[in-house]
Amino acid sequence: MELSFSRSKYSAVFSFWLLLLLASILLPKAQLQSSQDKGLCTLVVTYNTGEDRIRLDRVRFWLISERGDLHLYPQGNSYVDDPETSKRMVLIENLPEGAYTLKFIMPNSDGLFEKVEPRKVSLVQGGVVKVDQELKLLAKEIGSQPDVELAYESPYQREAPPMHEVRFYSQPFDSYAPQPGYLNIRSNVPAARWVLYKDGARIASGEGSVKDLTVPAGSGYQLTAEELENYEVKLLPQTPFSVQPNQTQSLEIFYKRILGVVQVMTDMPTGDALNIQIEGSALKQPLRVTQVARSNKIEWTSPGIPLGNYVISFKPPSFYEEITPVKFSLKQGQNALIRPKLRGGGKILVITNTSDATFTLKQTNGPLSLEGSGDQYRFEGLLPGNYTLTFSSKDPTRYIPPKSLYISLSRFRKHEETVEGEYTFAGMLKITGNIARFSVKLEPKSGNFDTIREEVTDYSKSIPLPEGNWKVIFTPIGRTGAGTPLPAKEIYIDAFATESITPVFEEKVEKQEPAVSVTETPRKTIDELYKDLIFVPAGLSIFGDPYRKDTENTFPAQVVELSTFEISKYEVTNGQFCDWLNIALQEGSIRPKDNQRGVFTNVKGNVVFRTMEANADSQISFRPTQDKVKPFMVLPGFDNYPVIHVTWIGAQEFCNTFGLRLPTEAEWERAASVRGGNNVSEIKKWIYGFSKDVINRSLANYKSNPGTSAFHRVATTPVGFYNGVNTIPLSPEDLIPKKTEDAKSPIGAYDMSGNVFEWVQDWYFDSPSLLHLEKNPLGPLSGSLKVAKGGCYDSLADGVRSFERIALAPEHSDSFTGFRVARTTN
């Protein structure tokens, strides 16, 4: 026997038996033994794909027994290659005798090979059968990569794995179709890997699309696909499917890229353009757009872009400041919202002659409004356009601001404008007359000042004036002959000082009741809080509105039982509250609020009070530079007026300091308008808080004429003013005041209708079903609004009824609301 390594045909020089000998040497597990000894069969399969061994490593064949058992060969490295002939030999031993089918499988979706028909093989006991298969090429292979990679290890492995057997569990023949089925797998991502399972066992895996994949017919097939970052994958069919014999079924793997959007929102004057650019590795080229502002806004949403990391940059017109690019990430399930802050390149430097200067810069045709203060302040980030600069002062009694200035910033350059505002040092002129209403004309005798006209509507008024000589002219207001004009007077105003002047009008009165002067009362102190407490006996009371005429701010009446308590005869005054403010500031229980001049809070940060520096209507100021021990000061002449601009929290803090409390709403109504008793027949409730069901200006401080408004001024009266001694005009036209009535409540308290609203203890409720307890009822145990009672000087008659109520936030303060105190008795 001759062995030759020439490139002649294998059949001429390489005998079959020599191959068996080589196989026994090269394949440790394939040592040939006598078939006769065992009575089993041996099968030798050789195949080739041409001299270039094209795709030889990816060729497999199924060996199918007549029972339907299937095995895939070659297994692992159990084969021998002939380098001369390019053939591969596979030795299969210990096969039972019988009929077998060989079915070759190869990567042939591009039609490179001729179709190979299944081969029938019969094995007899102890015999050896050789099968030689030539896989013929139809066309030259294009490229080095197939359009599908078949792997039998990890479906996500990029390199071709070593070959090994993929086993199927043996089943009876009738469990399988005698013929195989075929699958066409189509994927829209060529590199995406997939795995095919049958009954949970992996059958095949690959990547991209494949055509005519041969598989055993049967049910329980399922396809899974590789999850790709930033893609959603959809498989059809989605549920387990069956493969029919000799039929082809199509499977779809569809990858859809997950996209996100970018939203840009910012304020920008109408007509200005903003260039937007988005760059990122997931974009082939930058996304560029130009947006023009409409309704003073830019609102833009990008088209869908792939998930990933990006940089967005903005280019506004040249008169804006540059905007720093923003880095952001688009993640699955999230969109990006970016709000670039556009700042103009314009600046305005304001220079004044006092550190107490305050000013407001407003855009003429835009929403911008900025605040500044001090002797030098720079407004920055301004857009081109027209602006108005309005001056004011932290202390209007000392400094008179200059007139407003109008400033224009150009669109064609970034620049800074410098403006100067010269404040005039002022003094205070206090005017007190003997009639309620008169006009004052103030003419400057020196300096470049305007003539000032003021109206005095409540006997007295304080007017800040620039330093210098002034001519003062007084004229009464009212019916002809009601008063005689006074000769002009001259007065010199010193800066930071107060001058007083008292015009006395000679009134012509015929058959009129003589005016009764107001009785001066000393300043009320903290000690008088306790002296002014009135004892209220226990018993039944009426809580709510028994009349039910105007029910908008009331609830139906019900009879309740109250224990004894004490309540103050008067509302807490400016003087009393000012004393507490000075005590609390020294003890550290209140403090100024950062960046809010004139606002004071407790240690928890809740607002308790607002001084004149925060709201000009307040009647208490804060002057730490004048008096460090008592920096809180009452406006001269207003010590015995009810405190205003106090919050519910401030009223509560005041009460806690002195062992007092706020009355409950039920207690307040009992003290205001109810005659109590021990049975229902004894009790009575009046409409108003002075034991009457009718009202006029001699009984309470309220708004008697619906056509007038007091919003332009604070019109409180001293506490207890309606005492039958003091006088007041009954209407704005009355020049002769009328005596007040002694307007006490059933228990002897004053001002329980009108003057100021009064905080009570209860949380607000809008239904009596929310009352807590039938004896000593309270409102809800919690809430967001507190109750205020009694109406105020700006309330109409129905607003000062004793059962009228309003709801206010605990940190709210205004010019209409104060409080009175109560105390629990043993």
Walk me through this protein's architecture:
With 826 residues, this protein is mainly beta. Among the domains are: 10-255, no CATH class; 259-338, Immunoglobulin-like; 346-422, Immunoglobulins (Immunoglobulin-like); 426-501, Carboxypeptidase-like, regulatory domain (Immunoglobulin-like, Sandwich); 574-643, no CATH class. Helix content is 7%, strand content 37%. It contains seven helices and 58 strands. Residues 1-21, 23-37, 140-177, 479-483 and 507-518 have low confidence and may be disordered.
Shape: elongated
**Biggest sheet, strands in spatial order?**
4-5-1-8
User: If you compute it from the alpha carbons, what radius of gyration comes out, rounded to the nearest whole angstrom?
Assistant: 50 Å
Number of strands: 58
Distance between the termini: 132 Å
Name the average pLDDT: 82
Q: Approximately what portion of the residues adopt beta-strand conformation? A: 35-45%
- Which structural category do the helix and sheet elements fall into? mainly beta
- Low-confidence blocks of residues: 1-21, 23-37, 140-177, 479-483, 507-518
Query: In this structure, how is the largest beta sheet organized?
Result: 4 strands, mixed
- Give the helix level as a range of percent: under 10%
* DSSP summary: helix tally: 7
List the helices and strands and how they pair.
Elements: H1 10-13, H2 16-26, H3 35-38, E1 41-48, E2 60-65, E3 70-73, E4 80-82, E5 87-95, E6 98-105, E7 119-123, E8 128-134, E9 181-187, E10 193-198, E11 201-207, E12 210-215, E13 218-225, E14 231-236, E15 241-243, E16 248-257, E17 259-260, E18 262-267, E19 273-280, E20 287-292, E21 297-301, E22 305-306, E23 308-315, E24 326-330, E25 336-338, E26 346-352, E27 357-363, E28 369-373, E29 376-382, E30 385-393, E31 399-400, E32 405-409, E33 416-421, E34 424-432, E35 438-444, E36 452-456, E37 460-466, E38 468-476, E39 489-493, E40 498-501, H4 527-531, E41 533-536, E42 539-543, E43 558-562, E44 565-568, H5 574-587, E45 590-592, E46 599-602, E47 607-610, E48 620-622, E49 632-634, H6 648-657, H7 665-673, E50 674-675, E51 684-685, E52 727-728, E53 738-739, E54 757-763, E55 786-789, E56 805-808, E57 817-818, E58 822-824
